[in-house]
Specification:
Elements (H helix, E strand, L loop, with lengths): L2 H12 L2 E4 L4 E4 L4 E8 L2 E7 L2 H10 L6 E7 L2 H10 L4 E3 L2 E2 L2 H12 L4 H8 L15
Antiparallel strand pairs: 1-2, 3-4, 3-5, 4-7, 6-7
């Protein structure tokens, strides 16, 4: 390793940036994305990762079927949890859901620059909240 390489490595660590050769450019540690992977048979995995390509490769290595990345949106763990909560009734196991048509519709809305929370309500409206009983007290 040359002196330049040492200096570059120290600078990257100090700036909390790492180099990802597969993308060919520096990226910050916080650049998470929410991904959607078609697992076949109507199943879709909804997860979050900084390196979606590497995550897909990890999943593919242990999958008996061909997996296909169907979408990626900007987001972090909070966005992932919001999507999981909205599609909770479709949860099959862990982060795998049986709502591929709803996910495709969500991705279409997000492509049109609809905020994720509004797109979720358009795709899968939430049940109205119940009013609390006041038991006649004011």
């Amino acid at each position: 390793m040359t002196d330049f390489d040492d200096l570059l490595e120290k600078a990257l660590r100090r700036k909390r940036v790492y180099y990802q050769p597969s993308l060919g450019n520096p990226r910050s540690f916080g650049a998470q994305r929410v991904y959607f992977i078609d697992g076949g048979n109507g199943l879709v995995k909804i997860g979050v990762s900084v390196d979606v390509k590497a995550r897909l490769a990890q999943l593919q290595a242990t999958s008996p079927v061909q997996l296909k990345l169907i979408g990626v949106i900007p987001g972090n763990d909070g966005v992932e949890r919001m999507i999981h909560a909205q599609f909770a009734k479709y949860r099959k196991h862990g982060e795998w859901f049986t709502c591929i048509s709803q996910v495709r519709a969500l991705l279409e809305h997000v492509k049109r620059r609809t905020p994720v929370n509004l797109a979720l309500d358009l795709v899968e409206p939430r049940a109205p909240r119940r009013q609390r009983a006041t038991n006649g007290k004011a």
